[in-house]
Design a protein that fits this description.
Blueprint lengths: L7 E6 L7 H14 L5 E3 L13 H18 L4 E10 L2 E10 L2 E7 L9 H4 L11 E3 L2 E5 L8 H6 L5 E6 L6 H15 L2 E6 L10 E3 L5 E3 L5 E6 L1 H10 L4
Parallel strand pairs: 1-2, 2-3, 7-8, 8-9
Antiparallel strand pairs: 1-12, 3-4, 4-5, 6-7, 9-10, 10-11
Length: 243
């Protein structure tokens, strides 16, 4: 980690899905504009199209076009979202990181949630692709929703300064999302940012969690705002040495 003197501002969006894809995209653009001074913006999993299994080709084409437009809009921000895309082998759910008008990182979901039939419609990504990546000296990692449950993946993202979790996590397992994301922050001595959907059947629980386990969340809001203080990461890793 490159030590940064100043904290960076972040926002985790906590939004409900609308059936018209364009409405979701327009809402995202509005939130990016209103948070243009925020360093990181994280959206819920497949926020633009949802898991629209009956129209995957349409969803993938819309997502590809939306990414082209987002690259034109996103400059200094780091915007993280997951989208449905089509490849030769089939459809994938892929995390995309956009910064300075470019897609600088991609990561396909490797753990598909069978209870909602993801495995019937999507191709799994490769496990080895889940690993920390660096932006301007800061180490980031991504776990997509269900992937948060797997301790083997926790080991693969170990050492990251910030772990981003775009999710569409059901309300029946709300406690699990909150417990696992907090435990990951404390165990890895890092910040964990969760952006979960807020539909009626979804858990909400979007949060920004510090290395000490302090949680900023509010289920009544569409934007969860806080900051990353890199001094806190440095302090925790010096205070409790794990290796």
């Amino acid at each position: 980690m490159l030590y940064k003197e100043k904290p960076i501002e972040i926002v985790a969006l906590q939004l409900s899905f609308q059936e018209r894809y364009q409405k979701n995209f327009d809402r995202l653009l509005a939130y990016l504009h209103s948070n243009e001074k925020k360093h990181i913006v994280l959206t819920p999993e497949v926020f633009l199209t949802g898991f629209d299994y009956e129209h995957l080709l349409t969803a993938s084409k819309f997502s590809a076009n939306a990414l082209k437009q987002l690259k034109k809009v996103v400059n200094e921000q780091i915007v993280v979202l997951t989208v449905i895309l089509e490849e030769e082998e089939g459809f994938i759910n892929q995390a995309i990181v956009i910064h300075k008008h470019k897609i600088i990182y991609r990561q396909t979901k490797v753990k598909l949630f069978k209870l909602s039939d993801e495995d019937l419609y999507f191709r799994e990504g490769k496990m080895k692709k889940i690993k920390p990546f660096e932006i301007e000296g800061v180490s980031y990692a991504i776990l997509i929703c269900f992937e948060l449950r797997f301790k083997s993946l926790w080991e693969q993202v170990e050492g990251a300064d910030v772990i981003l979790i775009p999710s569409r996590w059901g309300n029946a397992r709300k406690d699990h999302l909150e417990i696992l994301s907090s435990a990951l922050a404390v165990m890895n001595q890092c910040y964990v940012i969760v952006a979960n959907a807020s539909d009626e059947e979804m858990a909400k629980s979007s949060a920004i969690i510090s290395p000490f386990g302090k949680v900023v969340k509010d289920d009544s809001k569409e934007e969860i705002k806080s900051h990353i203080d890199f001094r806190e990461i440095k302090k925790m890793r010096r205070y409790i040495v794990m290796d």
